[in-house]
Write a structure and sequence with these properties.
This protein has 67 residues and is mostly helical. The chain has one domain (3-64). It is 81% helix and 0% strand. The protein has helices at residues 3-12, 16-34, 39-43, 45-64. α2 (16-34) runs antiparallel to α4. The longest helix is centred in the C-terminal third of the chain and has 20 residues, at 45-64.
């Protein structure tokens, strides 16, 4: 099985909520990176990191779990 077929199979099993989590997690990653520009975000950067790690962990669990 090649990488593309494997990835397509996993992506087809994701729901609309999973894609929403992807968007939120990537948005939070952008906020974390942007924290070094804004002092407001810098105050709360660890909250954003915690939410990002939780969402990313859920996504990785759904992608790599065996059905």
């Amino acid at each position: 099985m090649n990488l593309w077929k494997w990835a397509e199979g996993k992506i087809k099993k994701l729901s609309l909520w999973d894609f929403a989590m992807v968007k939120i997690a990537l948005g939070l990653l952008g906020v974390i990176i942007g924290a070094y520009i804004s002092t407001f975000i810098k105050q709360y950067v660890w909250y954003f990191v915690a939410v990002f790690v939780v969402l990313y962990g859920l996504l990785m669990y759904k992608v790599f779990r065996k059905n």
